[in-house]
Amino acid sequence: MVRKETAQERHEVQGGVGTIMSYHVITKEEFLGHGRLYSRFVLPPGTSIGWHVHTGETEPYYILAGEGTFTDSDGSVHLVHKGDCCIIEPGTGHSIANNGDEDLEFMALIYNA
Question: How many alpha carbons lie under 13 Å from residue 12 in its C-beta half-sphere?
């Protein structure tokens, strides 16, 4: 089967700032109980996804374009660019923000630990 991604405008995600776009690649049902999200996210300049914790699951971010700041579970802040992968371990928290001048684009995958 081949189909297009499904676009969704999202506001203040996880307590973050502004409006972002998510482009869902597969549905929760297609994970067959092994996860719940595989999406491409686009954060315009000045937007963010707020701090949140993943219990019983993990969520790597793979940066496709732009530049942002990733806050890790220990509170450390890292500048991220195209080609970086942010690893979120089960039971830990994270957030990401676009402080740059261009869109920050990344893939996110939430699957069971």
Answer: 1
Domain membership flag for residue 77: yes
C-alpha 42/C-alpha 63 separation (Å) is: 10
The position carrying tokens 């996210």 is 41
Q: Nearest 5°: phi and psi at 13? A: -65, 130
pTM of the model: 0.93
Structure tokens at 26: 């597969």
Domain of residue 72 covers 48-98
Q: What is the pLDDT of residues 74-86, one digit of tens each?
A: 999 999 999 999 9
Question: What's the domain count of the chain?
Answer: 1
CA-based radius of gyration for the chain: 13
Q: Is residue 17 one of the residues assigned to a domain?
A: no
